[in-house]
Each structure stands twice: as C-alpha cells, then as structure tokens.
Write the structure tokens for this entry.
Amino acid sequence: MSVSVIFKIAAVGILVSVLSQVLKHSGRDEQAFIISLAGLIIVLMWIVPYIAELFETIEGLFSL
C-alpha cells in the first residue's frame, strides 16, 4: 500500500467533512448525507483491492 493512497483517503475525508458541515449549516441535511455516502463509497472502491490482496496473502501464508 503506497503512501499516496493514504493521502488520497485523507483528502477525500477532509473534503467530505467540510462539504458536509457547510450543507448541514445551510439546512440541507439530505444532501450532506449523500455527500458523506459518496465519499465512503469512493474510499471503499480504493481500499477493496488492498483488502483482497491481504486475504490472498493470508490464505497463501496458511495454505488454506
């Protein structure tokens, strides 16, 4: 896992939290929820290949 992925995740987290706070204070709670959900989905799409690789490594380690 490279450091750039961690920085991307942090950037998305900061961006989503700022946008969410702005939308909540302007009374648009539903759109703030959608922004948070979209950020979560984006980050999960980046992390899922690394989790799959981790499980494959563990499976190879224990020869399951």
The chain has a mean pLDDT of 92. The radius of gyration is 16 Å. The CA atoms of residues 4 and 10 lie 10 Å apart. Helices lie at 3-25, 29-62.
